[in-house]
Design brief:
Number of strands: 6
Largest sheet: 4 strands, antiparallel
Radius of gyration: 21 Å
Helix content: 55-70%
Strand content: 5-15%
Order of helices and strands: HHHHEHEHEEEEHHHHHH
Length: 269
C-alpha cells in the first residue's frame, strides 16, 4: 500500500507532488537532494532578478535564465525515456519533457511571485501566465517559447483531427491531481518501453490509487502482469476490462488473450 494523502497532494506545489509520487515508486529516490537543488535555483533566480520589478520583464528574465543561461531544454532524442521523468536526473542533465521541466519552472516562477498555473492541454503540459490587465500568455515548458492560439489550434488538429477546435476548456487551469495522473501515465509508458515491468507495476498500482477501478488502467496492469508471467492476475484484469467496456475494440482481442491465459499452467510467485 502507498502511504499518500491524495487530498494533501492536491494542495501542494506540483513539483512537490511529483517528488512525493516518485518517492512512493522508488524509496531510494534522493528527495532531499532534489529539494536542495530547487532551493539553490530559486535563490539564484531571486538574486539575478532582484532589481527587476516589472512582472513581464521578470518573467522574460526567468525564461532567459532557465533556458539560455542554465541550459534547461527538452530531450528531443529520447523524449519517452524514464530519465526525463525523474527530477533528480532532470536537474542533473538539465533535460526533460514538458511536465518535468514545467514543474521546475512553475516552482521558480511562483517563488518570484509570478501569476503562473498549470494547463493540461491535450497534447502536452503548458504553463499559463494570467495577467490581471490583459490576455493570458501560454508558455511551452519544452523550449521556453510563448505559444500563440494559432499554434495551439494547429497542435490540437494534429492530435484530434482536422475538425478539432480550440476551446476555452482546453486552456483552463488544471488541478494538480490531473497533471500528476498524466505524469504517472507517461512514467508507466516509459518503464514499459524499457521493459522495467516490476517498476511499471508499482506505477500502475499508484495510478489506481488515484483512480480506483479505472478499467483502462486495470487493462494496462493486466498487460504488465502478463509480462511478469502472472497469468491468472492478468486474466482477471482483462476480464474486468471486458466486463466494464464490452464495446471497446480491444475487448474482442482480450477475450482471446483471456482464453489463452487460462490454458497456461498456473505459475506461483
Amino acid at each position: 500500500m502507498f502511504e499518500i494523502d491524495f487530498d494533501e497532494l492536491e494542495q501542494m506545489a506540483l513539483v512537490e507532488g511529483v517528488l512525493e509520487l516518485t518517492a512512493a515508486l522508488d524509496p531510494g529516490f534522493p528527495t532531499g537532494w532534489v529539494r536542495l537543488q530547487l532551493e539553490r535555483l530559486a535563490q539564484e533566480a531571486e538574486h539575478a532578478l532582484m532589481e527587476e520589478v516589472n512582472p513581464q520583464l521578470r518573467l522574460d528574465g526567468l525564461i532567459r535564465l532557465f533556458y539560455r543561461e542554465w541550459g534547461f531544454r527538452g530531450d528531443q532524442d529520447q523524449y519517452y525515456a524514464s530519465q526525463n521523468l525523474y527530477l533528480d536526473q532532470v536537474l542533473d542533465r538539465k533535460m526533460g519533457i514538458p511536465v518535468t521541466l514545467g514543474a521546475v519552472f512553475l516552482y521558480l516562477a511562483r517563488h518570484l511571485e509570478l501569476p503562473v498555473s498549470s494547463v493540461g492541454f491535450p497534447t502536452q503540459y503548458l504553463i499559463k501566465i494570467d495577467w490581471r490587465d490583459r490576455e493570458p500568455q501560454y508558455l511551452n515548458p519544452f523550449d521556453g517559447e510563448y505559444l500563440s492560439r494559432r499554434t495551439m489550434a494547429a497542435w490540437l488538429k494534429g492530435h484530434r483531427g482536422p475538425f478539432a477546435e480550440l476551446r476555452r476548456e482546453h486552456l483552463e487551469e488544471a488541478d494538480n491531481g490531473d497533471i500528476l495522473a498524466r505524469w504517472l501515465t507517461v512514467m508507466k509508458s516509459a518503464l514499459l518501453r524499457e521493459e522495467r515491468y516490476a517498476d511499471a507495476l508499482r506505477c500502475s498500482d499508484l495510478a489506481l490509487a488515484f483512480r480506483p477501478g479505472d478499467p483502462h488502467e486495470i487493462r494496462d496492469r493486466g498487460y504488465i502482469y502478463q509480462q511478469l508471467d502472472c497469468n491468472h492476475a492478468a486474466a482477471m484484469d482483462y476480464e474486468y476490462f471486458i466486463e466494464q467496456c464490452p464495446e471497446d475494440p480491444a475487448a474482442k482481442l482480450l477475450k482471446l488473450q483471456v482464453k489463452a491465459l487460462h490454458e497456461e499452467p498456473l505459475v506461483l510467485h
